[in-house]
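Class prep. Protein, please:
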Amino acid sequence: ELSTAAQENVKVNVAIINNGFLGMVRQWQEFFYERRYAATPMRSPDFVKIAEAHGLTGLRVTTREEVIPAIQRAGQTEGTVVIDFRVEQEDSVYPMVPTGADLHNMIRRPVPNRIVETAQDEI
């Protein structure tokens, strides 16, 4: 996809939420299999270098303070931008619905995500 974006000069911002795991699989193993992780740790490639190898812009975000500037830079950059957001390995994605459950059984975030709220307010 990155080759096509570069070749066709497409303006797309790609956000990679990178926790070094198969994130959703790890989360299911945490919630439903007592943290017995199997086949979920991943050796991640350097996504910034991959973007740059295609002639695209690659950014890496490792702190909360870097989130807004990276998103703003991506919005101001011509062509495709890949942002590798490094997050804690134990960060989870919400809401999630357990297998076979109804929507009213959805598991919600235990603490509000301040990064998303702040990012939306400042962009």
In short: DSSP finds five helices and three strands in the chain. Strands lie at 13-18, 57-61, 81-86. The CA atoms of residues 2 and 121 lie 30 Å apart. Residues 116-123 have pLDDT under 50 and may be disordered.
